[in-house]
UniProtKB/TrEMBL annotation:
Residues bound to S-adenosyl-L-methionine: 115, 139-144
InterPro entries reported for this sequence: Alpha/beta_knot_MTases, tRNA_m1G_MeTrfase_C_sf, tRNA_m1G_MeTrfase_TrmD, tRNA_m1G_MTases_N, tRNA_MeTrfase_TRMD/TRM10
Keywords: Cytoplasm, Methyltransferase, S-adenosyl-L-methionine, Transferase, tRNA processing
The keyword Hydrolase is assigned to this record: no
Protein name, per record: tRNA (guanine-N(1)-)-methyltransferase
HAMAP family: TrmD
Role according to the record: Specifically methylates guanosine-37 in various tRNAs.
NCBIfam families: PRK00026.1, trmD
Length: 232
């Protein structure tokens, strides 16, 4: 999988070198590159933003540097059978979910366009859509200063689903959201700790009973914490 990230804060992505993502990169399963948007400016001040047409607070990211950045990262795709998927992180986007993480984990080429300020001139996504699949994605209903932190989260969620990435593939099948439910409570040794006992059923050796208990607990937790997940 090829991943390109375009940002005015490349340093944010030094975390890509550690943890699971670091291993994915070292193993060659993921080829991730980070590009400084300002490298695609041509003025002395390396300007990436300007005031909004129509007025209003804040600044808007100019289209020209983004256009050149996309020319650079999508250029090599011209002959590819599968167009790249370009993600615009935005609090105004569609909610990023585990299902979307699975979809994106199948893509051969992902590009993340990290906007700052009030966002990127809307013509940029419109133009990119003529040569790539565009997705505007939000982490949730709150506002971050820019897309960088959101993209780090999305990258971790996506890359751990790339085949060959997680030590134990079963942990992906059983984790929260895999079946639309939150995960059941988990325990390890010792059986009694500070007066608190591990539920007997988990020590019974009866796999059927264990599975039934876990499902019941998952449903109960989901009903209590995230009833919206049960509506579908
Ligand atoms: Cl993807 N971007 C920004 N700027 N804020 C957010 C977000 C994304 N998701 C939730 N809040």
């Amino acid at each position: 999988m090829r991943i390109d990230v375009v940002t005015i804060f490349p340093d944010f992505f030094s975390v890509l070198d550690v943890s699971l993502l670091g291993r994915a990169r070292q193993s060659g399963l993921v080829d991730a590159r980070v590009h400084d948007l300002r490298a695609f400016t041509h003025d002395r001040h390396r300007t990436v933003d300007d005031t909004p047409y129509g007025g209003g607070a804040g600044m808007v990211m100019k289209p020209e540097p983004w256009g050149e950045a996309f020319d650079a990262v999508l250029g090599t795709d011209a002959s590819a059978q599968t167009p790249a998927t370009v993600v615009f992180p935005s609090p105004a986007g569609e909610r990023f979910t585990q299902a979307i993480a699975h979809e994106l984990a199948e893509a051969p080429h992902l590009v993340f366009a990290c906007g700052r300020y009030e966002g990127i001139d809307s013509r940029v996504a419109e133009h990119v859509a003529t040569r790539a699949t565009v997705r505007e994605l939000s982490l949730g209903d709150y506002v971050l200063n820019g897309g960088e932190v959101a993209v780090v989260a999305m990258l971790e969620a996506i890359t751990r689903l790339v085949p060959g990435m997680v030590g134990n593939p079963e942990s992906i099948v059983e984790e929260s959201h895999a079946d639309g439910l939150l995960e059941y409570p988990i325990y390890t040794k010792p059986a009694t700790w500070r007066g608190l006992d591990v539920p007997d059923v988990l020590r019974s050796g009866d796999h059927g009973k264990v599975a039934a208990w876990r499902r019941e607990q998952a449903i109960e937790r989901t009903r209590r914490v995230r009833p919206d997940l049960l509506e579908g």
